[in-house]
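Hi R.,

Here's the chain you asked about this morning:
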Amino acid sequence: MQWMMLQQDEPEDYVIATGVQYTVRQFIQWTAAELGVTLDFVGTGVHEQAVVSKNEGDKAPALNVGDVVMRIDPHYFRPSEVETLLGDPAKAKAQLGWVPEITVQAMCAEMVAHDLEDARRHALLKAGGYAVAISTER
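And here is the predicted structure, written out as tokens:
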């Protein structure tokens, strides 16, 4: 898509999106499923949490049933939060002939596989006595 945009005679803004809307909850569920983890969502609003209800396989050995793996943090709320967000790629499709080549679910699977590989590499280095810098956000 970036290459297609750069080939234009005049610069323009394009929305790169699938045009299909998903929830953050769905993305969290897809992520957990890639790891063999089933989640239950408990509570509501700012008190909602995702709790491990099943962990099958060896991709998330540190997770146990009952572990809280997601909770709402109002710190990350936008000052002017909108109720719904949905990208419209119509202009990119019409002017450039661009269409998404990957689903959101497939992108999620790729992201999880990459992060899992990084985690395994870090664990191997740590087991070998090496310090591993892991950034955290807050």
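One quick note: The first strand starts at residue 37 and ends at 42.

Cheers,
M.
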